[in-house]
Specification:
The complex is a heterodimer of chains A (33) and B (274). Chain A contains 1 helix and no strands. With 274 residues, chain B is mainly α. In chain B, helix 2 runs antiparallel to helix 3, helix 7 packs parallel to helix 9 and helix 8 runs antiparallel to helix 9. The chains are: A mainly alpha (33), B mainly alpha (274). Chains A and B meet through helix 1 of A and helix 2 and helix 3 of B.
Chain lengths: 33, 274
């Protein structure tokens, strides 16, 4: 796997994990009142 | 633009030709090759994919919470049997607002590469094809939860309705995944796309067998002002094979892809009568 591909893959995983976690946290915060 | 690591003929992108774009400072992506500045590529990937993921997750989870809350009402005028819990309105707002953010994210993400000049070498992952399945499979889960809620209060009609909806959503979300299953690994991990690889092999083959009119080729005139030395067809063929081998060594072409491209170059050379 080339450095460019590895870099973009890591970026994708971090972004998806971060954004998903943020969404779950926000919804649970709202639902908790 | 310095391109020390690649022996590929460099095709400047539109902005690059005007001298506006620079290569990625760490040479981590090939965005300059497709006419996209590296910073736009990175920011569009981060913001676009982030907005898209946030939107789909927030929408599905918020709807799930609302289904769990069930029917409720809040009114300053009427006496309500079951007042809405705190935050229900904000959840509804989130469900209404999230699609807008999702569309913005999808637009940013899919336009991070200039697709009129696709890079066949290393585009990185393309996860836009997961947006539809994620949305529909997520809502299928919401319907399953709703069906269980109906079944819990012994409303069989409602439960059956929700199961039918869940099945339809599983088909809609899972169908594209199933039809696209062969492309999924390449899309998930990145790398050259198949059809484009074929067109690149074609380009290499024509670069190897045709004279200097091919735009990829840069002929440097000799310093003494004489005419450029004629390159023999054998030199061109060897050059094309060397470029392919360099791509293969650098990991941009897999073993099978290298073999296919090489075979095409050789086939083209043979058909030219050598």
């Amino acid at each position: 796997m080339s450095p460019a591909r590895r870099y973009m893959l890591v970026l994708h995983v971090l972004v998806v994990a971060g954004a998903g976690w943020l969404a779950l946290w926000l919804v649970s915060r709202i639902a908790a009142g | 633009m310095a391109s020390g690591r690649s022996r590929l003929p460099h095709v400047p992108g539109r902005g690059e030709r005007r001298g506006r774009y620079r290569a990625h400072p760490l040479r981590l992506c090939y965005a300059p090759r497709v006419g996209t500045p590296w910073w736009r590529y990175t920011w569009r990937t981060t913001l676009g994919l982030g907005f898209l993921t946030f939107s789909v997750t927030a929408m599905v989870t918020a709807v799930l919470r609302l289904v769990e809350i069930g029917s409720c009402a809040t009114s300053p005028v009427y006496v309500t049997i079951r007042p809405c819990p705190e935050g229900a309105e904000a959840l509804i707002g989130l469900v209404a607002g999230a699609p807008l953010l999702g569309f913005l994210g999808l637009a940013l993400y899919v336009t991070r590469i200039d697709r009129r000049r696709p890079s066949p070498f290393d585009d990185g992952p393309d996860w836009s094809t997961w947006a539809w399945p994620a949305l529909f499979l997520g809502f299928a889960r919401v319907f399953v939860v709703a069906a269980n809620a109906f079944a819990a209060v012994e409303e069989t009609g409602g439960a059956i309705g929700m199961w039918v909806c869940a099945a339809v959503f599983v088909l809609m979300g899972g169908g594209p995944l199933l039809l696209n299953r062969h492309a999924l690994p390449a899309q998930a991990f990145g790398g050259p796309r198949r059809q484009e690889l074929a067109s690149v092999a074609e380009r290499f083959a024509s670069a190897a067998t045709q004279p200097a009119s091919v735009p990829d080729r840069v002929i440097v005139p000799p310093a003494d002002g004489g005419s450029a030395p004629e390159r023999s067809p054998a030199d061109d063929l060897a050059g094309a094979l060397e470029r392919l081998a360099a791509l293969h060594r650098a990991g941009h072409l897999g073993d099978a892809e290298f073999s296919a491209a090489k075979a095409q170059v050789l086939r083209r050379a043979r058909s030219e009568g050598r």
